[in-house]
Design goal:
about 250 residues; alpha/beta; TIM Barrel; eight-stranded parallel β-barrel; about 15% strand; binds phosphoenolpyruvate
Length: about 250
């Protein structure tokens, strides 16, 4: 059985003081938690996370990484730099980066490759817009997004990634995919991983993201191919994040 993984995506939120209070609040309520836990934070706060979380049960990571390994790329942060702050995870291809920064699936694949090259675990986000879902294109869209990554990575690396299915229409909107809708897509993603990597696909965590909260977490996390959550808004409140962790 795959262990559940709960990852907080803080997006562009936080301050040194707010982060300290949030991390303290989470740490105080972890007794009995069975899930693996991580927070993906804005890059300037990686040092703060390393200092606060080192040696404890919460891993940390970033929300994006450059496809390049270093040099004249103003504003970029490369995977080696994230390793320097002992990151375990990095989110790649979040729908906000695809939408607001024009990131293509091919670029996302290169970012995943760069992360793996430095021993980081990329959390590869895929998801369809409402228009695409209503046009019956969900499977094609998420299949193509994941397919670009699977094409670039060698088969033996596929078992080292995490996938997050995040329907764009559910992110930050309060609308959640029903457990059945999410499970259907997760099973499809699992089949795609299996076709590329065989039994290694059974070890890949496929997270659900999109308005996961204490009220709906249990039912979503009970689905056979939902191995955890990528949590936005609810990851900014210690009590809500803890409730999701304890729903696993
Ligand atoms: C996200 O941004 O990854 C996300 C899932 O956000 P929210 O939980 O707020 O919908």
């Amino acid at each position: 059985m795959r262990a559940k993984l709960i990852v907080g995506n803080w997006k562009m939120n936080g301050s040194r003081a707010a982060n300290a209070a949030l991390l303290d609040g989470i740490a105080a309520g972890l007794d009995g938690a069975k899930a693996s836990i991580a927070v993906c934070v804005p890059a300037p706060y990686l040092q703060q996370c390393e200092d606060a979380l080192k040696g404890g049960p919460i891993a940390w990571g970033a929300q994006d990484v450059s496809a390049y390994s270093g040099g004249a790329y103003t504003g970029e942060v490369c995977a080696k730099m994230l390793s320097d702050f002992a990151c375990r995870y990095v989110i790649v291809g979040h729908s906000e980066r695809r939408a607001y920064h024009g990131e293509s699936s091919e670029l996302v694949a290169k970012k995943a490759q760069a992360a793996l090259g430095e021993g980081l675990t990329p959390i590869v986000c895929v998801g369809e817009t409402l228009e695409q879902r209503e046009a019956g294109r969900t499977v094609d869209v998420v299949g193509a997004q994941l397919g670009a990554v699977l094409e670039l990575l060698p088969a033996e690396a596929v078992g080292k990634i995490v996938v997050a299915y995040e329907p764009v229409w559910a992110i930050g909107t309060g609308r959640t995919a029903t457990p059945e809708m999410a499970q259907e897509v997760h099973a499809q993603l699992r089949a795609q991983l299996r076709a590329r990597a065989g039994s290694a696909a059974d070890g890949v965590a496929i997270l659900y993201g999109g308005s996961m909260k204490p009220e709906n977490a249990h039912e979503l996390l009970a689905q056979p191919d939902i191995d955890g959550g990528l949590i936005g808004g609810a990851a900014l409140k210690a009590q809500d994040f803890l409730a999701i962790i304890h729903a696993t």
